[in-house]
Amino acid sequence: MMKKLVMLALLSVLVLPSMAQEFRMGATVGLNVNAPSGDIKGQAGFNAGLKAELGLPEAAKGWFMDFGALLSSHGWKNTAYYDHATQMQLVWKATPYYLSIPVHAGYKFSCNDNLKLFAAAGPYINIGLFGKQTTNATLTGTTTVSSNVFADKAQERFDWGLGFRLGAELYDHWQLSVGYDWGMKSIFNKTDIRNRTLSVSCAYLF
Predict the structure, then answer these.
(1) What Rg do the C-alpha atoms of the chain give, in angstroms?
(2) 188-195 — which CB contacts under 8 Å span 24+ positions?
């Protein structure tokens, strides 16, 4: 499934521009609020990077494709967990950073010359880059630090899922949007916990 999603993203980048009526690129930045499934508390983070939009031909006027390449943080913290094997109470806190690649299809509705409303949905893939994790044994006060949660296999490096965006475009350049991503793959190899991320973003397209 991961290979198919990567191929879909690459095909979108290579093939769709030749079909497009309009191609635009720009920058985007925003806030992430990650609230993973399971007994884990979410943490605030950020997303920032490049965004591109392809307006489809006249026959499909209003429809578009967009994709991005973003540095995105998905922090989390667990509630206190008692490990019977070591007879210690453990608390984990981590801030992993991903290269996030969303590929969305959407529709844009024009309200007037300066305002358009849009909705978009589609898959995304996350590729783990780096991130720190701290494990604290509360009964002994012992702290263990992982400087790279992916290299140390504390978290799965690859994540994928589905997301949607709702937003407004102002003056044909500024885009404000709110979105939500549902992770479809567990971020740990032994526990089924998946990313659930609310995002608020601002983009400027040239």
Answers:
(1) 19
(2) 188/155, 188/156, 189/153, 189/156, 191/38, 192/37, 192/38, 193/36, 193/37, 193/38, 193/40, 194/36, 194/37, 194/38, 194/161, 195/34, 195/36, 195/74, 195/126, 195/159, 195/161
Helix (H, G, I), strand (E, B) or coil at 11: helix
Residue 173, helix vs strand vs coil:
coil
Q: Is the pTM of this model over 0.70?
A: yes
Q: How far apart are CA 136 and CA 145, in angstroms?
A: 9
Q: How many CB atoms lie within 10 A of CB 40?
A: 20
CA angle, 22 then 26 then 32, to 5°: 125
pLDDT in tens, 14-33: 555 555 468 999 999 999 99
Architecture of domain 2-205: Beta Barrel (2.40)
Instruction: List beta partners, residue 22.
Output: 55
The percent of residues above 90 in pLDDT, for the chain, comes to 66
Residue of 67, 68, 57, 51 whose CA lies nearest to 22: 57
Per-domain residue ranges of the chain: 2-205
Give the pLDDT confidence of 39-97 residue by residue, as tens digits.
Answer: 788 889 999 999 999 998 765 689 999 999 999 999 998 877 777 676 678 888 999 99
What sign for the dihedral angle of Cα 149, 71, 121, 19?
negative
The span from the CA of 154 to the CA of 9, in Å, is 27
